[in-house]
Amino acid sequence: MDLRDQVVLVTGASAGIGRACVRAFAAAGARVAFCGRRRDRLEALAEELAAAGAEVHPFVLDVRRRQEVAAALAGLPEPFSAPGILVNNAGLSRGLDPIQDGEWRDWEEMIETNVKGLLWVTRAVVPGMVARGRGHVINIGSIAGREVYPGGAVYCASKHAVAAITRGLRLDLNQAGIRVSTVDPGLVNTEFSTVRFRGDRTRADATYAGMTPLTAEDVADAVLWAATRPAHVNVAEILLLPTDQAAATVVRRRG
Ligand code: NDP
Ligand code: 8X3
Predict the structure, then answer these.
(1) Residue 182 falls within a domain, yes or no?
(2) Average per-residue pLDDT for the chain
């Protein structure tokens, strides 16, 4: 499928996988609207892409704010007002505590962002796809939506919820001809672990010690591939792991 004349909306685009997806879609000729909370990051990305000739629209949005999500997405300016591809990427983890020591604020933030935020955005964008009779929702899930690891119960629960929403959406949109995919990465070296450990870089770096993780660009590659299959092909699920990772807790480390 040719991406020229396509409008893509990417959430969580100020860093990591979302930013790499924006760059990949823009390089492929799509018009890309993208959001996140850090305005300076979004504007820097927009400047970079506009200088390369891409048509982009950055905007500040916290996906947890249901009414602001609805208003922002209803008010997308031309020529970005009718996204044909939605990449639901915004998400985070907080902490790695066992449930008995868990912080309710961490749990709330993960569920508000990863589950409810994804739902608010999806609810705002998908009716337009249905009305136009075409579209593609690509959710960024995780190996954590397929497995559970110690200290990760709530993050994993949020990603299991994303997996269920993806499958449910595919059922609900079947008669509308809308494609629904999930791209589920294993370990990707982004700001994810720095956010999880609230800026503790030593702990964050230890996540990837002695192994070669995926890059954000590896994941964007998979997202772009799913988006560019012929219209009759729906890539339902991609599980993308580093060669050094066989399961959530089985990682080959050297040195
Ligand atoms: P990063 O921390 O590098 O990027 C996360 C992005 O999400 C940022 O742009 C952040 O922007 C945005 N974001 C967070 N909260 C909100 C919010 N409330 N509203 C809008 N945007 C928000 O992490 P990754 O790129 O790694 O993570 C992207 C997705 O990939 C997440 O869904 C994550 O769960 C998933 N994932 C990550 C893996 C990994 O190992 N890194 C593996 C599997 C899945 P800002 O702070 O400016 O709002
Ligand atoms: C992020 C990957 O393994 O830290 O979804 O849960 S993991």
Answers:
(1) yes
(2) 98
Spatial separation of the C-alpha atoms in residues 136 and 12, rounded to whole Å = 18
Question: How far apart are alpha carbons 137 and 11 in whole angstroms?
Answer: 12
% of the chain surpassing 70 pLDDT: 100
**For the domain that residue 122 is a member of, what is the CATH number?**
3.40.50.720
Which residues line ligand 1 at a C-beta cut-off of 6 Å? Answer: 11-18, 36-38, 41, 61-64, 89-92, 113, 117, 140, 142, 185, 187-188, 190-192, 195, 216
Amino acid 238: pLDDT:
99
Select which of 155, 192, 197, 208 is catalytic: 155
Q: How many folded domains does the chain comprise?
A: 1
* pTM of this prediction exceeds 0.85: yes
Give me the domain span that covers residue 36: 7-249
Using CA positions, which residue lies closest to atom 17 of ligand 1? 62
Q: How far apart are CA 66 and CA 62, in angstroms?
A: 9
Annotate 88-116 with DSSP letters as a single string. E----------GGG--HHHHHHHIIIIII
**Ligand nearest to the backbone CA of 154:** 2
